[in-house]
Design goal:
The chain has about 220 residues and is mainly alpha-helical. Among the domains are: about 50 residues; about 60 residues, no CATH class. The chain is about 80% helix and about 0% strand. The chain has nine helices and no strands. The protein starts with a helix and ends in a 19-residue tail after the last helix.
Length: about 220
């Protein structure tokens, strides 16, 4: 009885193994049907077609520099922008220089005209001064002649004329007369007129810039001392 059992054990083990194998195969088919692995492999294109005509794409790093780099001897885009900016700046500087030169020429011409005008005015001023100098000399000579004439006249006659003269002219004449000749004439004049002349002479002698010229007579004392 024990021998029969020993013989059945290997047969049972083999049968169990076959049963387990069948179950495993069945499970594998169920998993393949569930996830679609089988049909995907069937529909995949054969590898032979992919390898019959292999594509040889050009390297990316070779195409990019060919498009970016300009031909030898030509400036790049950034260099061209810099050169254009420098050219514009140069044109602006040239225009500014021309404007400055024009202004300098205009100022030079204006300065020349001003200098010519100043020289012309100086010439006119010199002529006017010379004319007034001649006139002053002529007037001075006339006054000197009048003074000599009044000094030779009698005091009463000279006083009668002095009473009718303009105050400014009378003062100019008396200031040029010698004191010894002017005093008798003042004494013979009207008292009010003699007083006015004496006050004016004293005022002029008190002013440094109105001092009488050298050799002229000092103010005479009022009549009746």
């Amino acid at each position: 009885m024990s021998k029969v059992r020993l013989r059945l054990l290997p047969a049972a083990a083999i049968g169990l193994a076959l049963l387990l194998g069948l179950k495993a195969v069945g499970l594998g088919e169920e998993f393949s049907a569930m996830f679609g692995a089988g049909p995907a492999r069937a529909e995949a294109p054969p590898k032979a077609e992919a390898t019959d005509h292999p594509a040889t794409p050009a390297p990316a790093h070779d195409a990019a520099p060919a498009a970016a780099c300009p031909p030898a001897g030509e400036p790049t885009a950034s260099e061209a922008d810099v050169l254009e900016s420098l050219a514009q700046r140069r044109e602006q500087l040239d225009a500014r220089e021309r404007e400055i030169d024009m202004r300098e020429k205009t100022l030079g011409a204006a300065e020349k005209r001003v200098e010519e005008r100043i020289a012309e005015l100086k010439t006119i001023q010199g002529n006017v001064e010379a004319l007034f100098g001649k006139r002053d000399a002529q007037q001075e000579k006339q006054l000197s002649d009048l003074v000599k004439m009044y000094e030779t006249m009698k005091p009463a006659n000279a006083a009668a004329i002095f009473d009718t003269l303009d105050q400014a002219v009378l003062i100019d004449v008396i200031r040029r007369m010698k004191p010894a000749k002017a005093s008798p004439v003042l004494a013979a004049m009207k008292p009010e007129r003699a007083r006015d002349v004496t006050v004016e002479l004293a005022r002029l002698e008190a002013l440094p810039d109105q001092a009488a010229p050298a050799g002229s007579a000092a103010p005479a004392a009022p009549p009746g001392g």
